[in-house]
Amino acid sequence: MGAHLMPSGEVAPISTSRGAGLGGTPHLFAYPNKDSEAEVIQFGSADTGAQGLCAHVAELADKAIKEKGSFTLVLSGGSLFKALTPLVGQQGVDFSKWHVLFVDERNVPHSSADSNYKGAYDTFLGKVPIPKEQIYAIAEGLPVEAAATEYAGQMLRMDPIVLPRNASGLPVLDLILLGIGPDGHVASLFPNHKELAVKDSWVLSVNNSPKPPPERITMSLPVINAAKAIDVVAFGAGKAEVVQRILEVQSLPGALPAQLVRPEEGKLRWLLDAESSSRLSIMQWQDSKAFPRSS
Ligand SMILES: O=C(O)[C@H](O)[C@@H](O)[C@H](O)[C@H](O)COP(=O)(O)O
């Protein structure tokens, strides 16, 4: 990603779709790229973005369930959970076939205010009929290295029809939802940290996270990039600067971990709202005479 996603003057909207099956009024762009593609979908507000996100999650769930009888959804922490609340009470979604994992988790008890599991459960997971045994939480009370190994073990023990492997033996998750931090981190993969280079483990321990709490577990980049689909979700003015840096500025390798999210076979989408996309030049081009809106 980065600069090669934005070759100057080569980015043009391929379509503007009202709804696009995602709800709200997204504008859909494609970024030509030698080795990967991303779609940036701009919503009017965080609320319409949340509706669009949930429509997309439900659509991919439906597709996965038709194909293999189950859907694996992977969550990160932070503001994402609130964006998932439109799924609560949604008709026509077969939650009984969902399996929910965490792309990263803090090494704290499930009852802790810092727990992603608690945040997800209180906001969304506890309000939809996903069987509890299909929610894969971090084991409590282990040293962080053991917690990472144990979580990888939970993944390894999953039915291979639910969680198939690719040709490299990596798990192929159906959809990973990633938030981004102001420093460009995704999951618990922080700028210039050694975990970015790890290729031989599914789940890593982190004991010096710059964002508290310091002890976390995180899926590795190869596992993230083996997913069928990744949605990077960033709403609000607080994300505008980092979104612009990630999508439009070439950084040194590892300086912006979000630039290393490039699914090998899967589809990468960025879901933004008017505020978080306000600094992107493509959005300005889209409104300019040089790049008129298509209908
Ligand atoms: O454990 C964590 O710290 C989160 O998983 C983290 O990676 C989060 O997703 C981003 O920092 C975005 O968080 P916000 O959406 O709350 O800004």
Give an overview of the whole structure.
The chain has 295 residues and is of the alpha/beta class. The chain has a single domain (54-78, 95-286), classed as Rossmann fold (3-Layer(aba) Sandwich). Helices cover 23% and strands 18% of the residues. Strands 1-2-3-11-10-7-4-5 form an eight-stranded mixed beta sheet, covered by helices on one side. A hairpin with a 6-residue loop joins strand 2 (27-31) and strand 3. The longest helix is centred in the first third of the chain and has 23 residues, at 46-68. The two termini are 27 Å apart. Residues 1-21, 23-34 and 285-295 have low confidence and may be disordered. Bound molecules: 6-phosphogluconic acid. 6-phosphogluconic acid binds next to strand 6. This is Probable 6-phosphogluconolactonase. Its EC number is 3.1.1.31. It comes from [Myrmecia] bisecta.
- Quick one: biggest sheet? 8 strands, mixed
* Total DSSP helices: 7
Straight-line distance between termini: 27 Å
- What's the helical proportion of residues? 10-25%
Q: Which architecture per CATH?
A: 3-Layer(aba) Sandwich
- CATH class value: Alpha Beta
- The fraction of residues assigned to DSSP E strands is 15-25%
Structural class, by secondary structure, is alpha/beta
- The succession of helices and strands, N to C, reads EEEHEHEEHHEEEHEHEH
Strand order of the largest sheet: 1-2-3-11-10-7-4-5
Outline of the structure:
By secondary structure, the protein is α/β, with parallel strands linked by helices.
Task: Lay out the secondary structure.
Layout: E1 13-16, E2 27-31, E3 38-43, H1 46-68, E4 71-75, H2 80-83, E5 98-102, E6 104-106, H3 116-123, H4 144-156, E7 175-178, E8 203-206, E9 216-219, H5 221-225, E10 229-234, H6 240-248, E11 267-273, H7 281-287
The site of 6-phosphogluconic acid (6PG) has 15 residues, from strand 6.
